[in-house]
Amino acid sequence: MRWVPAPPRPDLRELPIEGQLVIYDPVARVTHLLNESAAAIWTAWRDAPSDADALTAHLASSHGVPEERVRLDVRRAMSRFEELGLLGEPPSTRFRPPQWGDAVDVEPKLLATELTSTIPAGRYRALDYPFEVRATEPSLAEAVRELLGGLAEPPQSGGNDGGAHARPRRYDLVGDGEQILVLVDGTVVRTATTPAMALTFLSWHIHRQALRHSDRLVRLHASAIRVGDLVVALPAPPESGKSTLVAGLVRSGYRYVTDEAVAFDPVTREVLPLPLPITLDEGSWELFPELDDNPSADTSSMVVAPQLLRAEAVGRSTPAQLGACVFHRFRPGATTTLRRAAAPEALVLLLENAFGLDDAGDVAFEAMTDVAREVPCWTLEHGGLDAAIDAIGEVVAGVTREQG
User: How far apart are the first and last CA of the chain?
Assistant: First the structure.
């Protein structure tokens, strides 16, 4: 009996790169890299599926190889495709895994009965998300200005093309006895017992909304620094030391771009700055003793204005070209290993660290493929902050020479 596997799933995204094939599964939100042999088998089966024996004969004839040598490769590859769920009908999207940036509000929304008169703390824009903040206490308003200063819009600014005419969302920080209420357009979304908790939530909410409102941009889960007219992106999965690394780099003298999301235009490859405060988890605090007196240190997550690490940390908030990517991970006790990533590996890592691929169109996937081909990419594993900073310094020096 002839073995007839199902045809490839029609919903998969195929991205050829340097003779290999990257396949993105939009349901499982996972990426697969097929080597040259597996890519040839996949493509032949996709274009003219009949049965495995006919596929073997076709490949043997087209490549001038005996069928016996091809048959085992075909069987192994097709079995692996089936195991990965890449063949047949697309599965239901009902049980998709959660995606970064999709978290829900941590408090139930309750309509505010009265809104106390508040003090303007400024108008801002995070990517394509315009908003304003007001507070009942002058000290709260000043703390907001310090944390969000890099996002401030100049008077009469029209913003960028992505949302220039959108109505600004309004945040209010309202002191209510022993707690602070955080309101969004008049609705309570969080109650905090300290100013630090209120500011931490405010930063988190703005970041989440910025990602949701900026789907014209390619967005990576990454921190970033600026070197001259170039941005060095530092993509990493959650809990990989991303915020600790960028805080250390800023303290070392690099200009701050973002802590949580690198967003770039898919056509121009310009990175739009998103200088929200850096959020440091408690395990990193001992690395930054100069922040001991920071008022936000009474929470498990400390939001830090980059200016507290270095006065001139936030430069001019203008777009800059994406000049390099360093995919990094902290592992206690690890030997520092920095190596250049080939384009296929870089594309896989870009996809694995991207936001919003569910609704992304061809232009976003094409942009990430171009970045993998044309932008220098490295992988970095390290066991400590100082070693990581030294490794990033090597990357910066190399990029500077190449651009020289």
Answer: 64
**pTM of the full structure:** 0.87
Sort strands 255-258 and 218-227 into parallel, antiparallel or unpaired. antiparallel
- The amino acid occupying position 225 is I
What pairs with residue 222 in β-bridges?
235
Residue 194 and residue 37: Cα distance in Å, rounded? 59
Taking the C-alpha atoms of 206, 158, 164 and 315 in order, what is their torsion angle to the nearest 10 degrees? -40
Helix (H, G, I), strand (E, B) or coil at 264: strand
User: How many angstroms separate the most distant Cα atoms in the chain?
Assistant: 82
CB-CB contact of 395 with 232 (8 Å): yes
Q: Which of 354, 143, 135 is nearest to 235 (CA)?
A: 354
Distance CA 9, CA 15 (A): 15
| pLDDT tens profile 145-180 | 988 988 998 765 444 444 445 689 999 999 877 889
Q: Measuring CA to CA, which residue among 244, 205, 197 is closest to residue 385?
A: 244
Which among 208, 323, 196 has a CA at the least distance from the CA of 255?
323
